[in-house]
């Protein structure tokens, strides 16, 4: 895949890579960022180059949405927004369908992608390796977004706080589940020094519904679940709220993060940012597609705050942000 991407690199990409060499020569704070970037303001994303000669102002802006099964559907969904983006920036904007996360990150790193929506898990790598500057996510009209992982028990279980799970049983859903296994495992290890097998007995229920039912019926003493699933089960009267006690609630897991590559001219970055926040959702192709998930606005975010829990999970799972 890397060879294929390299063959597609154009003049703008080569210019970016040259600028990257200049940035790499600087002595500057950068945290986990690749050597080509600096982070003087400690916001954990690449600074905009202070030298105007290192800033770019392309005639055509390239936008990519996180890889999906049928990119054509999302090209249509984003059509109204991209038309609005053209009006706000005075530039042509094209939709670039990407096939996988690695290709999307490489496209931005190589200079062929200027604006993008990276999914939750790939955001940290895009930030650190490709100079991605996320500033917004989609949210419901009331400002709510994403979901949380909760660790639950039942009244009278004897478990009142996380530490009480020591030596007892904790139900997960499946090893591939973020909120049902990876996130709670990482948080328990990072914040409480507790690991499966060593400090508690892990069991697997298969899915969130089974874990919620298992706790409500006292089959499991405690379980890690997605609260969105639990909420729907309570709404449908599958279980009642008084059968469950929550002893831990994670930070909200963010959804797809939208932003720009670091070295666009500051004025252009501001125009793009404004286009996201003044976009009129009502009657748009974007609303038609994304209201299915309850989303209806772009919410301002910071990577440092909103992706904190994801970075914690990655660290616990020994995920590296090094560029390959």
UniProtKB/TrEMBL annotation:
Record Pfam families: Phosphonate-bd
GO CC terms, sorted: ATP-binding cassette (ABC) transporter complex
InterPro entries: PhnD
Signal peptide: 1-25
SUPFAM superfamilies tied to this protein: Periplasmic binding protein-like II (SSF53850)
Keywords assigned by UniProt, alphabetized: Signal
Record GO biological process: transmembrane transport
Assigned protein family: Belongs to the phosphate/phosphite/phosphonate binding protein family.
This protein's name: Phosphonate transport system substrate-binding protein
Record lineage: Bacteria, Pseudomonadati, Pseudomonadota, Alphaproteobacteria, Rhodobacterales
